[in-house]
TrEMBL record:
Signal peptide location: none
Membrane recorded as keyword: yes
Family annotation (PANTHER family): MINICONDUCTANCE MECHANOSENSITIVE CHANNEL YBDG (PTHR30414:SF0)
Residue ranges crossing the lipid bilayer per the database entry: 25-45, 80-98, 110-128, 149-167, 173-192
A Pfam family per the record: MS_channel_2nd
Record's protein name: Mechanosensitive ion channel
Organism of derivation: Salinimicrobium oceani
Intracellular or extracellular location(s): Membrane
Residue ranges occupied by any Mechanosensitive ion channel MscS domain in the UniProt entry: 194-262
Key words, A-Z: Membrane, Transmembrane, Transmembrane helix
Length: 427
């Protein structure tokens, strides 16, 4: 059969020579015709096998329950595999077509070898992409930096492919090329420094569970504040709250400091930590008249009664002179307000009652005494969290005057003008 194919490939040359045409010209024309025939056959086989394989894969994926074969189709695996059959045609026909032209035969054989190498790399790339996409859909791997490892594999496949292509073109052995490559390792390390650092960082990020896909992180250095959507070999992609995207070098996740809010996301509540600045000169002891008034405030009435009873017993025991409130122990309007705020938090339906809850003093400042509200909202969603916080502080700010307290506020231009007018007698 092989001899018969050779006879057919040389038929035109023999025919033209028999008609008196120059032998070199006849063989050259014969080669061109053979190239055209091979090209037509290659195109026909490529088109047919591609349609058959794509149709077969499509029907097969529609019948199976697994989604792995669906991802094979999406990654063009059948398309690359369909190139194998036309490639076999080239392997068989190239030696026949260029039989009379050994130099051209050598060139085309190298091109076929390079084609084989590239096709192998593309098939491997398709399998890596398929496996990556298939693993990402599973909850177990949803928050893992699979893309980083896939990129490392792809770099490895392309590196090996380029080494074999270079070896094919230069006709040097792969081992010799690797030896010469080792001599230039310093240059290679410099060129691929970011890739190597990114690979090491992605491993550390994964092993130490520093960041997962879906984590909310804040990285002020890069202006990132949002959810991690992708972890690659070189970069981490963050979708900010304004729907913009920020890319952060993967290595910086282990080299710099940033906030990861995963602990808050996994906890049953989200922390509220804000302060009201109370003017210090509005704080005072309360008298009997104040006590009677404050006892009308339902949330704080039990505290006032219990506390006043303890204070009366203490003062009576020590024989305290009640003429001056400075003597002995007495309640203050700020203390009553603090306990009112705590009672309000305990009664609030949107505050997590099993987590830390307190109303405390912070050190006095030039802006007054900060009274800090520290608690956790039961709803962690941002918009609901902000609404709950606003609701609490709306109420407490409005409640401050009821305890004869004042909030500190820096004077505005109008305040200064009014003060000056008052001093000058309204002029």
């Amino acid at each position: 059969m092989w001899e018969r194919i050779k006879e057919l490939s040389n038929y035109l040359a023999e025919y033209l020579i028999g008609k008196g045409l120059d032998e070199d010209i006849a063989h050259f024309l014969n080669m061109l015709v053979n190239i055209a025939v091979v090209f037509v056959l290659w195109y026909f086989i490529h088109h047919i096998t591609k349609r058959i394989l794509l149709t077969a894969f499509q029907r097969f994926t529609n019948k199976t329950k697994t989604t792995f074969d669906d991802y094979l189709v999406k990654s063009n695996f059948p398309k690359y595999v369909s190139n194998i059959f036309p490639l076999l045609l080239l392997i068989l026909t190239v030696p026949v077509v260029f039989e009379d032209y050994p130099k051209l035969l050598e060139v085309f054989e190298k091109l076929v070898d390079i084609y084989i190498i590239l096709l192998t790399v593309f098939i491997c790339r398709s399998l890596v992409r398929t496996t990556t996409n298939y693993m990402k859909r599973h909850e177990r791997y949803h928050d893992k930096p699979i893309e980083s490892y896939a990129q490392v594999l792809m770099i490895g496949f392309w590196s090996i492919g380029l080494i074999f292509i270079f070896s094919e073109i230069t006709e040097r052995s792969v081992l010799g090329f690797l030896i010469s490559l080792g001599a230039a390792s310093a240059i290679i390390l410099f060129i691929f420094k970011d890739t190597i650092l990114g690979f090491i960082a992605s491993i550390q990020v994964s092993v130490n569970d520093i960041v997962r896909i879906g984590d909310w992180i804040t990285f002020s250095k890069y202006g990132a504040d949002g959810f991690v959507t992708e972890i690659n070999l070189a970069t981490v992609r963050v979708q900010n709250w304004d729907n913009t995207y920020t890319t952060i070098p993967t290595y910086n996740l282990i080299a710099d400091s940033f906030h990861n809010w995963r602990g808050m996301q996994e906890s049953p509540g989200r922390r509220i930590k804000r302060s009201l600045n109370i003017k210090q000169n509005s704080i005072r002891f309360i008298n009997e008249e104040d006590i009677q008034k404050f006892e009308e405030y339902g949330l704080v009435a039990p505290y006032i009664k219990q506390r006043q009873q303890e204070i009366n017993e203490y003062n009576l025991k020590l024989g305290i002179n009640k003429k001056h409130l400075l003597n002995g122990r007495h309640q203050t309007n700020l203390g009553v307000f603090r306990n009112y705020a705590l009672a309000y938090l305990k009664a609030h339906p949107q505050i997590h009652q099993e987590m830390t809850m307190m109303v405390r003093h912070l050190p006095p400042t030039t802006q007054g005494i900060p009274v800090e509200i520290y608690c956790f909202s039961a709803d962690k969603r941002w918009e609901y969290y902000e609404a709950i916080t606003a609701d609490i502080f709306d109420h407490l700010i409005a409640a401050v005057p009821y305890f004869d307290l004042q909030l500190f506020e820096s004077p505005s231009g109008d305040d200064i003008i009014k003060s000056l007018k008052h001093i000058s007698g309204g002029k």
